[in-house]
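Good day; I would like, with your permission, to put a structural problem before you. What I wish to show you is a protein chain and, alongside it, a tokenised description of its three-dimensional fold. Thank you for your consideration; the sequence and its tokens are set out here:
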Amino acid sequence: MIPIVTPQEMGDIDAAAPEPVEELIDRAGRATARVALQMLGGAYGRVVDVLAGAGNNGSDGRAAAHLLASRGVTVRVIDAAVQPSVLPPCDLVIDAAYGTGFRGEWNAPEIVTRSGERPQVLAVDIPSGVNASTGEAGPGVLAADRTVTFQALKPGLVFGAGRALCGEVEVADIGLDVSGATQHLVEAHDVASWWPSRESDAHKWNGAVRVVAGSGGMLGAGRLSAAAAARTGAGLVTLSSPGIDPEARDEIIQRRIPAAGFHVDVFEDLDRFGALVIGPGLGREEATITSARALIGESTLPVVVDGDAIFAAAWSADGAAPLLRPRGRPTVITPHDGEFSLLAGHPPGADRVAATRELAADLDATVLLKGPTTVVATPGGEVLVVDHGDERLATAGSGDVLAGMIATLLAAGVVPQRAAAGAAWLHADAARRGPRRGLLAGDIVELIPMALGALGTLEER
């Protein structure tokens, strides 16, 4: 996992370093110069414009400029404070105007072509003008091809507009201690190390998943969630809906339940299962809400609360906390922004990490906040971030698939935070294996085995 620290945390880390600030600037400058030379493909005949501000970010840029000049690169250091409107032609622009402490709006100078080609842009720590805490950015930010950041990612590199503006990100080690970080970006090898293995003597009831989902014209939601649980590795999946779905896979056991009072039927054999998914396409009738709340509150299984079950959990005048806090069992709740507003009483806002942490603490549950960058927070404030997904996940039913995947990991005994983050990463990876256009949620289900196969290859290394 790659640590993520806020600007304030990074300031405290810098202040606690035993090395003088000059030494840290030299290390940052060397890292920047190394990446710049990689981008240039060599020094001979190359021209670099360094846009340098007055703070440490500018000092990092100036240190890199000195090192590049010593290698034979023609370097021009341009003072960002004079706010030039146009930079002279060059092969590479190093954006060291403003760093993580910048607030406000920055309008970068125009860059022009040299020999008919647009120069590449290398940002130092973060593209100038991007809010390092949230990723918010004004229209004048210079988009980078690459960003070299130091010791840890900053939230602004993985959230909001900053995620797209930073280009390819490299985290350079300059010797700072970030071991106290409470946010981390999930990588493939992390997921591979968390993924449970199935014992040779396992049987179908080991890690079985119960799905309570689907209603009327929404039977497909339950079908997707159940199929995803099975594809992710559950030995047995039972789907309970008010109607029988003739299009569900033959491998999925279907148990028809009444539209009202269905919790009584589900409780009859629920203790045989390893985890429960409740909510995808379940409906919002008052009787449905009553049964859903009874299942969530009284079940002794790990539960994934998704879709309409989130609405049911938030139905009480006191909100979802009185229902979820006493459970004493692993609970993962998976809101998108609208559902977050139902639970918290307000939208998540720009600082999605802080919002998710606050809700997780209030509900005493693991919260997975969906979005272009997914945030998973525990009640204790630990955060895992997944930025592996892309626009292919923005399709109807995608969240139903994710809910079933999380349940499979919970049923296998994976701790809630890793179950949620690991499933979110694999969910994104499966979608990446499909076409850029026209991908449906059902396609993601069918691509899960391919993603699992690649994960297994990583685990063997």
Summary: Residues 135 and 159 are 5 Å apart (CA to CA). The chain has 15 helices and 19 strands.
